[in-house]
Design brief:
Elements: H1 4-27, E1 31-33, E2 40-42, H2 58-73, E3 78-80, H3 88-98, E4 106-111, H4 116-130, E5 135-140, H5 146-158, E6 162-168, H6 175-184, E7 189-193, H7 205-212, E8 215-219, H8 226-231, H9 238-242, H10 248-257, E9 264-265, H11 272-280, H12 289-300
Parallel strand pairs: 3-4, 4-5, 5-6, 6-7, 7-8, 8-9
Antiparallel strand pairs: 1-2
Helix pairs in contact: 2-3, 2-11, 3-4, 6-7
């Protein structure tokens, strides 16, 4: 029999249970499913353009090892690179070896050359440089010779040499062709630029990805640092606290995360303090449509 004492006791525990539930939710990384598989992917990934194109000196590799350690410690998994990024793949390979090749790694890189055989050789070299036997995701960089490389990637996926395939661009001039590829080809991932200032992807790319069930990776989330010049010296608004943002960087990342068709973001840094800050956006509340509209209004008021 349920007594008054039982009911009062249960009522007394509700605030505690609610606090536990909120604490557990805040401690868990924000994830999004990869549409083609349902696999959950943390929204905060890591890029390596420019930041990991370094000489293999001990001091720099030690610093980058700490950057990647912090990334994994905060629940990150997807690390994105490319042979276009100079020594980035090799530096990542050394860093991952230093960390014992973490099991949670979701390794992604790109093919960026002309010709099917040259593409195969380049992808094999990327595997050696990053010291991963097989990539989780292989992407065609900036649509280069995409028809030939896509045939190879389809075969590799069927053979289990890669788990996912995709295509990328960082240039608006490629959007029309990218749209057609997204509509007609069986892509798992597509990567492009999107941020609170550059919102072009909202018009067609993000809706097509949502409609076709394609995971999205967002590059240049800070517009190559230009966003910080706009907010420099500005006080964080009260809305930032509601969303768990402790910096303008997290504010800008959370705005992107708030779009339901966004799967993963890949800000790049070579500094541990910036990695800590980036990964702060991997947790806490996700802004809804009204909050994103207010965040945009705040940004446009600068």
């Amino acid at each position: 029999m349920i007594t008054r004492r039982t009911l009062l006791g249960a009522a007394a525990t509700l605030p505690f249970l609610r606090h536990v539930a909120i604490t557990q939710a805040a401690a868990a990384p924000i994830t999004r499913p990869i549409p083609s598989s349902g696999e959950a992917l943390p929204v905060m990934g890591m890029g390596s353009s420019r930041t990991f194109d370094v000489a293999a000196d001990d001091a720099m590799i030690t610093q980058l090892t700490e950057v990647v350690r912090l990334f994994f410690a905060a629940g990150g998994t997807l690390i994105d690179s490319s042979p276009m990024y100079g020594e980035a793949e090799s530096a990542l390979g050394q860093v991952l070896a230093n960390l014992g090749m973490p099991e949670q790694l979701f390794a992604a890189t790109k093919v960026w050359t002309y010709g099917a055989e040259a593409g195969i050789e380049q992808m094999q070299e990327s595997s050696r440089r990053m010291r991963v036997p097989a990539f989780d995701l292989m992407q065609i960089h900036n649509l280069r010779d995409w028809k030939l490389h896509l045939q190879t990637l389809k075969q590799w996926k069927e053979q289990g040499k890669i788990r996912y395939l995709g295509i990328t661009t960082s240039h608006q001039r490629n959007h029309a062709e990218l749209e057609e590829i997204m509509r007609t080809e069986p892509l798992d991932f597509v990567q492009f630029s999107y941020n609170i200032e550059n919102r072009l992807a909202e018009e067609r790319l993000l809706p097509i990805a949502a409609d076709r069930g394609i995971a999205t990776i967002i590059n240049r989330p800070y517009q190559r640092g230009a966003l910080f010049a706009k907010s420099k010296g500005k006080e964080l608004p009260a809305l930032a606290q509601e969303l768990g943002c402790e910096s303008w960087g997290q504010f800008y990342l959370k705005w992107i995360i708030g779009h339901p068709a966004v799967t993963c973001l890949i800000p790049a840094t070579s500094k541990p303090k910036h990695m800590k800050d980036n990964m702060g956006a991997n947790f806490g509340p996700v802004p809804d449509a009204a909050q994103r509209a207010e965040m945009l209004r705040i940004f446009e008021s600068f």
